[in-house]
Amino acid sequence: MAIILAIETSCDETAVAIVKNRNVLSGVVASQIPAHQVYGGVVPELASRQHLALINPCVAQALTESQRTWSEIDAVAATAAPGLVGSLMVGVTAAKTLAMLHAKPFLGIHHLEGHIYASYLSQPELMPPFLCLLVSGGHTSLIHVRGCGHYEQLGTTRDDAAGEAFDKVARLLGLGYPGGPAIDRAAQQGNPQAFALPEGRISLPEGGYHPYDSSFSGLKTAMLRLIQQLQAKSNGPLPVNDLAASFQETVGRSLAQKTIRCALDHGLTTIAIGGGVAANSRLRHHLQALAQEKDLKVYFPPLKLCTDNAAMIACAAAEHYDQGDRSSLTLGVQSRLPIQSVQQLYL
Ligand code: KG4
Ligand code: ZN
Q1: Is the model more confident about 266 or about 209?
Q2: At the topology level of CATH, where does 3-117+306-345 sit?
Q3: Whose CA is nearest to atom 10 of ligand 1?
Q4: pLDDT recorded at residue 221
C-alpha cells in the first residue's frame, strides 16, 4: 500500500497530507481566509505569497504528525490543475523539488479528482460507478465517475460557480466573506418562501431546458434588483434573513433536482457530493429528501473533507501510483483542464 505525501495550493488553503491508501496519517491545512477577508475575496498575488511562506512549515508539520520519515514515503504529489496559476506553481515546484531531493516519483493531480476522492476517504465502501456533485467556490460539476482517471462531466455552470454566487450575494447583503456559511446562518432565521426567485435554467435552441447545466448570473441579478426595489420602497433595514433564506432555497432546490434527474437518466443509484457548498443545509436537505423518494443513496462527507485539503489529493495520487501513473518533472501547471483530460498529467 503506497504512502503518498501530497500538497494542495490551488486556491487559498496551503495544505499538506500524508496518506496510506485511504487512511490519513496526517493532514495540515493552513487557511488564508483572514488574509483575504479584508479584501472581500481571494487576491491571487497575495495567495501565492502566502503559499510560499507557509509551504515548508506545513510539509515539516505533516511529516512530524504522521510519524513517518522520508524513507517510508513512496511518492510526492501536488495539485497541478485547475486553479490559480501562481498558487499551483508554488505547490508543484515544492513537490517536484522534494521528489528530486529524496529520489521519489512525482505525480501531478487534478483538483476535481481530489474532491471526488474525498468521498472515498470518508466512505470506504463507496465504489464506482457513481455520480459526483461538486459544488465549490470554483466549480459546479456533475461528474459520472467510472473509475480512477475515468470521468465524464455531465453538467456544469455556464457562468459563476455555486460558491461564487453565494459569496457575491452575501456581499450584496452585507454578510461578509466567505459568504456561504454566512448566508446559511442568516437563512436559519428567515422564510425560504418570502421571495420567488428565478432558477437560472439554460434554454436549448430546440426548446426546453438543459437538464444538468446551471447558471447563477440571472439569480444574482434578480437578487440585486430585489434589494434595490426593497431599498427604494423603505428606508428601514433589509429583510436580510428572508433574502438569504429565499436565495439559498432556490440554489439548494435546483441543484438537488438537477443531480437527482442526472443520476436517474444515467442509471446511477449512488451519489456523492463534495466542495464547500456541499455543507449547505438546504442543498443537503433537498438532496436527502429527493434521493429517498427515488430510492437513491447519497453520501455526504464531513465538511473538513468537502473544503480544500491535501488528504483528498494524496488519496487520488495513491490510486494513480498503484496503477503505474507517473508525471514528468517538467509537468507545468494549468489554470483550466477538463476532468476528462486527467491522463494528460501522466507520462
Ligand atoms: O471547496 P471550497 O473550500 O474551495 C474551493 O475549491 O473553492 O469551497 C469554498 C466555497 C465558498 O464559496 C464558500 O462560500 C462556500 O464554499 N461554502 C458554502 C457553505 N460553506 C462554504 N456555501 C453554501 N453554504 C455553506 N454552508
Ligand atoms: Zn476545491
Answers
A1: 266
A2: Nucleotidyltransferase; domain 5 (3.30.420)
A3: 137
A4: 94
